[in-house]
Amino acid sequence: MTKTQIGSNWRMPLIAFGAGTMLAGTAGAQSSVTLYGIVDAGVTYTNNQQGHSAWQATAGNESGPRWGMLGTDDLGGGLKASFRLENGFNLENGVAGQGGRMFGRQAWVGMGSDRLGVVTLGRQYNTVQDILGAMQISSTLVQYSTHPFDNDDINNTFRTNNAVKYVSPSVAGLQANLLYGFSNATGFSDNNSWSAGLTYTRGPLNVGAAYARMNRPASSTVGAVASDNYYASTAAVFGTRLADATRQQIWGGGATYAFGPATLGLLYTGTDFNMAAGGALRFGNYEGSVRYSLSPALTAALGYTYTQTSQGDTSGHYHQVSAGLQYLLSKRTDVYINGLYQKASSGIGHAWIDGIAAPSSTTSQLAFVAGLRQKF
Hints:
Elements: E1 10-12, E2 31-49, E3 52-59, E4 66-76, E5 79-88, E6 106-113, E7 117-124, H1 127-132, E8 160-167, E9 174-181, E10 192-202, E11 205-215, E12 236-237, E13 240-241, E14 245-259, E15 262-275, E16 280-293, E17 298-311, E18 314-328, E19 333-344, E20 364-375
Antiparallel strand pairs: 1-2, 2-3, 2-4, 2-20, 4-5, 5-6, 6-7, 7-8, 8-9, 9-10, 10-11, 11-14, 12-13, 14-15, 15-16, 16-17, 17-18, 18-19, 19-20
Protein name: Outer membrane protein (Porin)
Subunit structure: Homotrimer.
Membrane topology: Multi-pass membrane protein
């Protein structure tokens, strides 16, 4: 998931973080820098990893560990400048995530207003991640509950570099989201990306749809989708590696509806990986979910995903069930326990819950994870 989550933030005066780096635009204008973060770790049991059971210390089960800075500068007249720098890391060994980047999760600067919308520039989430990520069950449960191989990227396998994003103001519940990622090369379409989407929010109803296209992704280290931050070489179906795609397209739509203590969700995403040799590796993910607040401190969640995959005349499918409980010890700290089961068709040959260290030696895989998360 790893979606941006900011817990109980604390503000530092500008003098505590380089007062000279930000300017007050007009008399009485307010500026601030917020330091925030999440630390999350636990223990994961898997019944079958290449034929053996495994107990492992794992980090980032519910939320990817991070620390970041969010700055705003009130320029007056309703206009604000802002920036975000967000580092991701592995809590178990301290190693930087996202290919070792200092601010691999997000790094951008922008300007906008409630009336005109906001433009941001830098390393960012694309529109599919922004809109559909929050609807997926992994936004509530552990990230293992995402779709196989994170084929639709809504669990943030990769971000978009060199990106210019515009998010419109909300008008009668409608809000647009547009992004373009530059290739930064003379071949304009070599490793560029664009995405677009729309959301509608009214009371307990939230509806969204989005599309993203990546041209020659991972063909360079400097393009919109860098080669050191794309799918691993082990992510493969029918002998075809996702990382070898010359074009990737993602589309989808979903909705959530809250009533009383329950929230119901439906989500569909489709992904095409077009290959240099011709043809495409295709995925279709159909997900239903329910989240239920048993008490102000205790939440239960259940999700089911059916994933179809095909390449030419070859096809297969996955069934996956994810369930879990989250208990808030405070506004900042929670504990959780989740269980996950995946069943792959015989045409695929083996199950592999996304995020588990290795595939099963059979067509089924079962995992349990328990952990502790703290936000600051």
